# Entry
Amino acid sequence: MSLTQAVFILLGGMAVLGALGMVTLRNLFHSALAMILALFSIAGIYVLLEAEFLAVVQVLVYVGAIAMLILFGIMLTRDIVGRASAVRNRQWPLALAVSAGLLAVLAVALVRAAWPLATYAPAQGGVADLGLALMGPYALPFEVASVLLLVAMVGALIIAREARE
Amino acid sequence: MIPLTWYLVLSAVLFCIGLYGVLARRNAIAILMGAELMLNSANINLAAFERYVAAGSVAGQVFVIFNIAVAAAEAAVGLALILAIYRSRDTVSVEEVDLLKG
Amino acid sequence: MLNHYAFVGLFGVVAILFPVAALVVGALAGPRRPTPAKRARYECGLVSQGESWVQLRVQYYIYALLFLVFDVETVFLYPWAAAYGQLGLFALVEAVIFLGILVVGLAYAWTHGDLQWR
# Structure
C-alpha cells in the first residue's frame, strides 16, 4: 500500500466517522460538529484528487458558511431544556434497512463495473481553465446561478425575519 | 495510486449514511444536514469521474461548483423555513408538523 | 505535486499534538485545589449569568445568510479573476451582470432594514 492510499484511508475513515457521528449523536450541536469533521475530510479527498480549488471551496463554503448557518439554526431553534425528544423517529429500522440495502447494491455494482479509461490522469491546469469554462460554455448556467442565489437570499430573508408590527 | 473504485465506494458509504439521516432523524435541521452530506457525496463522485474517466476536461469541477451553489441556496431557504416553523409551532420535530395532514 | 501537501499534513499533526500535549502535561503536572470560584465558567472575567445555551436572535441567522450568499459569489468570481488575462470584454460583461444581480439582493436587504441591528 502506498502512502497516498494510506492517506486516503485515513481521510475516508474520518469522513465516515464524522458522518456516522452526525446521524447518531443525541446533541444536535455535537452532531453538527461531527458534520464539520466529515466536510473537512472531504476537502482532503479533493486534495488527493488534485482538485485544489474544490478543496478550498469546500472549506470556504461548506465548513465556513453552510456549517455556520446550520449551527446558528440549531442555536435558534434549540428545544427548551428538559424537553429532549428522541433522536430517531418510529420508522428508523426501515430507514436503516433501506440505507444498508442501497449501500450493498451500490457496493456490488461499483466494484464489478468496468469503468472506461479508469486510470489516473495527471491534473490538467488549474483555476484559470475553470474560469475559461465558466465564462465560455457554461456562461448561461453561471448567470442563472446568480439568479438562484438572489432568489434564495430574498426568499430566505422574507421567510426568516420576524414579522414587524 | 488510488483506484477509482475507492472514491466511488467512499461516496456510496457517505450517501447511504446521509440517506439514513434524512429518513430516520426527527429534527428538521438534522434532516437538512443529511441532505447536505448526500450532496457532498455526489460532489466526490463528480470530481473523481472527471479525473479518472474524462481527463482533460473541467466539466466535473464546474458541476461541483454549481452543486455547491445549489446546496448553499438549499441550506439558506431550508433553514429559514425551519426557523419560521419553529416560530409559529415551537417545534422542529418533523413528526409534530402535520398541518396539512387530513 | 501531492508532496507539497506533506507540509500541510505535518502542520495538521503538529496542530493536533500541541494542544493535546499542553493539556496532558497540565493535567499531570499541575496541582489541583479547586474552589467554587475556580470551577466557575469563564465568561470574559465576569461572573457568568444564566445558562451557557442561550437562545440566539434571528438577526444572527440573517447575517450568516448574507455571508453565505456572498461567499458563494466569491467562489464563482475567483476562477474568472484567475483567467482574466485570457478573457475578453465579454467575460467582464458577464461578471458585471453576475455581480449586478446579486447587488439587487443586497439592495433589497438594505432597504428592508435587514442590515440594521435591532
Observations:
- The first helix of chain A runs from residue 3 to 24.
- Chain A has two domains: 1-84, 127-165.
- The radius of gyration of chain A is 20 Å.
